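Query protein
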Amino acid sequence: MVDVNLYSRKRRVSRLKYSLIVLLIIILLIFGSRFFVTQAFEIRLRQVSRMKGYLFDNTGTYLTGNLKEDIDMMYEKKQEYIAIRNKLSRQVNDLRKHVDLKSVEMDVFRTIEAYLEDENAMKTIASRIQFESGVGNSFYYLIFEGKEMFFPTPHTTPTLLARPSVRGNLDFAELYSLQLVDLEVGDLNE
């Protein structure tokens, strides 16, 4: 006859049941936590999409939910916009240089214009105006009434250094006098 210990068999069966229950609880916890974590990420993704929707819409960017793909896509977009910013920054610097050059040119022409509007002369006739390398040169005639002539002075204060020089005076018809002026404006240190 065989001696069977029923208590130990029950114990083994009960241990097996408890082990299966614990294993089932662990599996449920793993799947439940994964579910809750993915739901939390999806909720956060929707919040970010709502908050940043205008930015995504304007850049043509959409989050897919796949974290690796989204990170790669965002990195590429960032690099693209950095390149665009650098290009625009170079263009702005080029435009500033161009505007500075043009502002020097405009200052030269404003100064020449101020000298051409001589308040003492009846009439001013410009025969030549040149601009090169920041220096302007003008050759013009001033017509005065009678014999009284003045050294050419600007009507308004010129913005740049100017050096007018009278090349000659001429009286004609005893009613008018003619003065020939050579004017240099700009960087005259050469």
User: Anything to note?
Assistant: The radius of gyration is 45 Å. Helices lie at 6-51, 53-59, 67-116. The mean pLDDT is 80.
